[in-house]
Design goal:
elongated, alpha/beta, two-stranded antiparallel sheet, single chain, 2 domains, 5-stranded parallel sheet, disordered C terminus, 16 helices
Length: 407
Amino acid sequence: MPQLADPANIRSRPTSVVLGELAIAAGLVGESVTITCDLPANTLCRIWKYYTRSLGAGNVIHVRAKRDLKDFALRVASVRAVFVYVPRLYQEVAWTIQMAGTVAMSSCPAVFCALHHDEPDLDPGLTLPLTNDEHEVAAIHTWVAVHAECPVVEAALPSSIEYDGRLEAILRPSSSEGIGLGFREQRIVEALVEGAAFLHSTANQDSDSLVTTLTDYEFVRRLLCSQVVRPNRELCEPLAADMIRRANVYLSVKLGGDRRNPFRVEDEDGYRRSHSSSLKRDAITRRELADLGNVHSRMVATLIEYLQRADDGYARYLQMGCTGESTPESRWRRLSARDLARRLTSWSLKQVRTHFDRLHQRGLITAERENANGPLRYRLPEELENVDSPYSQLPMVRNSRQGHTTA
């Protein structure tokens, strides 16, 4: 009988951790899901150690070199999780799982890969990419410091899976348009919902017949619509988009028409007088962009203080890349600039080089003026700018049975 981390209080765990637990549970009821992410190595190490302790070291396998693939092929039907340290080995792991030829409801492992693989169309499995979000990283480290080990429970595998009729109508509608997802993404939703149902069944010690509910779906939907779930496209750059939006707000203040703004500089090189979209210098320096990413910097606080005095300041603040729920406008001007700054996405100088400079040098980030006298505004191609989760259009449901929760 497999063991799992006790699903009690699962809602209090970081999103990245919970999605991995749902992937493991989905594997136990027959659908292998891969979680890939570009989290820092020390953060991944802590999450993977947590999964290993929960499942038991004998129920996981580590793929660090090609020789480990042979061992995995022999154990594919018995392991619960596979940790792939080298992305180039992922494809062989995925093909081994998909070609194992297991019967319906047979357990299969969840896969965790250290980095995003570059060619999703060559992936035979169901892969959910997660992005590096600094607030999520902080939440993981804070949580692990207290819950590095948690109680485990034994989980009886179900003999069948049934869908609540209302949930069936949501996930498998008769309309040819479906729920606005590709086949792969729709299967990921269904697999994770089944995993959520298995976890709440384990927590409640229900019968061996698994019934997925609207509560399971809503729990999964909220997780998939979170900021850590990135679009399933190689080129999407959520962090670069945040950098550009905040840079544009800063430039609109620094190089706008208000001579009283705190960043105003003399126009020694004719920046404001030039109608050209190309100048000898960049509209913003790497150092300025790094300071804008430091949410504890004086620059960010000064910019927010200026916006709090401006008529359209609240709308411009929301363009700066907020994390979590946005602050209501009714309270916004009463909060300190330091407090509002802490609610913004942060980034480092290194991330400026890897997420902004790289695209800028390739000509994917361009600058142009909206009007003759306005400052240059940076722009991304549309396919890079759309950074919403691909699951953001999943329909929301309300379940009258509020007492029935995933865990």
